[in-house]
C-alpha cells in the first residue's frame, strides 16, 4: 500500500498495459506501431540492418535494427539483454511468425555482464548433458529445452483437470514423517528437533487416510528415494502424480481412471501444446484401450517369443520391461500395457492380496514403451487384515498408529496409484535420460544447482 500527498492508493487488480504482447503483436496490421518486451535470443549483424530475435514466454519474434532508423547502435545489443523496443509492424514471410518489428527506439531493461556460456540461441545446444545441467538456468532458455517442460506442464495440467472433473479433491501431504509408507532401507533419514524422521518415499499413507474423508483425493508433489542407482531412469527426488479413490469394485477401476487421464491429457496436449510438440517433433500415442496381462503371463510371453530365460521370479528386470513393451507393440499395436497381479513379496504391506492366490496382489504397473511409469492397485481396507499383513511382513506398528486408526473407524474399499512425472515426460518426448526431463535433477552426484 502506498501513500502520496496524504491520499491512499488502492490496488484493484490487473490493468491493461500499453506494451504489445505476443498475441497482440500478431494481430496488428502493416504499419501499426507496437511495443515489445523480451530477451535478446539471438543476433545477426548484416551491416546496414541487424536481426534481433526476441524471446518471450509465448515464443520468438523478429525485430529489425536499421542503420539511420533505429536510434541505438547495434553494438549495444547482446544476447541475453532484456529490452523494450518500439517500432513499426511489417509483414515478412521469412520472419518466425510472418511479421517483424522495425525498431525505432530501444530501452535496455537489463544488460548481460558477459557472453552467455551456452549457445541458447541456436536450435540445438549441441553440448553434453552434464554441461546443460551445470548451467541449468541458462540452458533452459533454449527453445527446445524449454519446450520439454511446457509439455510436462501440460501433463500435470491434464492430471489435475481430469481428476477435478471426476470429483477428486486435491490435497497436500507432509514430506517429513516419522515413518515411511514403503518401508525398507532406501530412506533419507534426518534429525527433526532431536527426533528421528525421514523424507517421505510416497504420500501413500496420507492418501489412504484422506479417502476416509473425501472419498477421492489426488496430489502432485516431490517424493524421495535414497536408492544408490545411477541409471538413465532413476532419480533420488522426483515428482509423483498420485490419486486414491474409494468405493471401488476392483483394482481395474484404478486402471480405467488412469486410462481416462491419459486419453484426456493426450487430447489436451494436442490442442493446447501443439507448438511445443512440433518443436520437439513429438507424435502423441493413440489410446483407444490399454491391454492388461498378469505378471506371470507377461514373463512367459516374452520368454517364449524372445528366447529369454526367466531369472527374477518376483520382479521385472529392466530388459524384461522393454521386451514386454516390444511384445505388446508388435502384437497389439499398443505403447501401453498394464501388468497386473505382482507377487506379494515385492509389494508393500497395504497391497491387497489376491483372494484366489495370496502369493499375488491385486496390483499393477503401467508400462509405456517398455518402461514402468505407474505403480498402483487395490489396498487393504479391513483393519484386522491390515494388522495381520504388517505382522506377516515382520514390521512394527510403531509410527503407524494414526494411520491404523483410520481403518479402525471404518474405511471403504479403495485403491490408487502413483505416476512418475519425469519418466512419463521422458517416454512421451523420446528422451533417453530422465535428467533431460527434470528441471533440477537430484541423483547420486548432483545437489546443485
Describe this structure in words.
The chain is α+β, with helices and mostly antiparallel strands and 449 residues long. Helix content is 29%, strand content 27%. It has helices spanning 22-27, 129-134, 136-139, 143-165, 204-214, 252-272, 274-279, 295-306, 318-332, 383-392, 401-408, 421-429; strands at 3-4, 7-8, 33-45, 49-55, 60-66, 82-91, 99-110, 169-170, 176-177, 189-192, 195-199, 216-224, 237-246, 292-294, 336-340, 353-354, 357-361, 363-368, 371-378, 414-420. The strands form 5 sheets. It has an 8-stranded mixed beta sheet with strand order 8-12-13-20-19-18-15-14, sandwiched between helices. A hairpin with a 2-residue loop joins strand 1 (3-4) and strand 2. Helix 4 crosses helix 12 and helix 8 crosses helix 9 (318-332).
Could you outline the blueprint of secondary structure elements for this entry?
Layout: E1 3-4, E2 7-8, H1 22-27, E3 33-45, E4 49-55, E5 60-66, E6 82-91, E7 99-110, H2 129-134, H3 136-139, H4 143-165, E8 169-170, E9 176-177, E10 189-192, E11 195-199, H5 204-214, E12 216-224, E13 237-246, H6 252-272, H7 274-279, E14 292-294, H8 295-306, H9 318-332, E15 336-340, E16 353-354, E17 357-361, E18 363-368, E19 371-378, H10 383-392, H11 401-408, E20 414-420, H12 421-429
Helix pairs in contact: 4-6, 4-12, 8-9, 10-11
Amino acid at each position: 500500500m502506498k501513500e502520496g500527498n496524504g491520499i491512499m492508493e488502492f490496488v484493484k487488480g490487473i490493468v491493461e498495459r500499453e506494451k504489445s504482447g505476443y498475441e497482440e503483436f500478431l494481430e496488428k496490421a502493416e504499419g501499426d506501431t507496437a511495443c515489445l518486451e523480451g530477451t535478446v535470443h539471438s543476433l545477426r549483424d548484416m551491416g546496414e540492418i541487424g536481426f534481433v530475435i526476441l524471446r518471450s514466454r509465448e515464443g520468438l519474434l523478429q525485430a529489425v535494427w536499421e542503420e539511420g532508423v533505429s536510434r541505438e547502435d547495434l553494438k549495444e545489443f547482446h544476447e541475453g539483454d532484456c529490452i523494450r523496443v518500439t517500432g513499426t509492424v511489417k509483414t515478412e514471410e521469412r520472419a518466425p511468425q510472418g511479421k517483424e518489428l522495425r525498431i525505432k527506439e530501444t530501452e535496455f531493461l537489463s544488460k548481460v555482464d558477459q557472453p552467455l556460456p551456452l549457445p541458447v540461441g541456436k536450435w540445438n545446444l549441441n553440448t553434453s548433458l552434464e554441461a546443460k545441467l551445470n548451467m541449468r538456468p541458462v540452458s533452459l532458455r533454449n527453445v527446445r529445452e524449454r519446450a520439454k517442460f511446457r509439455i510436462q506442464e501440460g501433463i500435470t495440467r491434464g492430471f489435475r483437470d481430469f481428476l477435478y472433473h471426476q470429483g477428486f479433491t486435491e490435497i497436500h501431504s507432509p514430506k517429513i514423517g516419522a515413518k515411511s509408507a514403503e518401508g525398507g532401507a532406501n530412506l533419507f533419514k534426518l534429525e527433526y528437533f532431536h527426533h528421528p524422521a525421514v523424507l517421505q518415499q510416497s504420500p501413500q499413507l496420507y492418501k489412504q487416510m484422506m479417502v476416509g474423508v473425501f472419498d477421492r483425493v489426488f496430489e502432485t508433489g516431490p517424493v524421495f528415494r535414497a536408492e544408490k542407482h545411477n541409471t538413465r531412469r532413476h532419480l533420488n527426488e522426483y515428482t509423483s502424480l498420485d490419486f486414491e479413490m474409494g468405493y471401488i469394485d476392483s483394482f481395474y477401476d484404478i486402471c480405467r481412471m488412469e486410462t481416462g487421464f491419459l486419453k484426456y491429457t493426450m487430447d489436451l496436449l494436442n490442442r493446447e501444446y501443439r507448438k511445443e510438440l512440433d518443436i520437439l517433433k513429438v507424435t502423441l500415442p493413440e489410446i483407444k484401450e490399454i491391454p492388461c496381462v498378469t505378471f506371470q503371463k507377461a514373463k512367459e510371453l516374452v520368454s517364449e517369443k524372445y528366447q529369454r530365460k526367466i531369472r527374477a521370479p518376483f520382479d521385472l528386470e529392466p530388459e524384461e520391461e522393454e521386451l514386454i513393451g516390444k511384445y505388446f507393440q508388435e502384437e497389439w499395436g499398443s505403447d501401453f500395457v498394464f501388468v497386473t497381479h505382482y507377487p506379494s513379496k515385492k509389494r508393500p504391506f497395504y497391497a491387497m492380496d489376491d483372494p484366489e492366490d495370496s502369493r499375488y496382489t491385486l496390483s499393477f504397473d503401467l508400462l509405456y514403451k517398455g518402461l514402468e511409469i505407474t505403480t498402483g492397485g487395490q489396498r487393504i481396507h479391513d483393519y484386522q487384515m491390515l494388522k495381520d499383513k504388517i505382522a506377516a511382513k515382520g514390521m512394527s506398528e510403531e509410527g503407524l498408529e494414526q494411520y491404523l486408526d483410520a481403518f479402525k473407524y471404518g474405511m471403504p474399499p479403495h485403491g490408487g496409484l502413483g505416476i512418475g512425472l519425469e519418466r512419463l515426460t521422458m517416454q512421451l518426448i523420446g528422451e533417453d535420460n530422465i535428467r533431460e526431463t527434470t528441471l533440477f535433477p537430484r541423483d547420486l552426484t548432483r545437489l546443485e544447482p
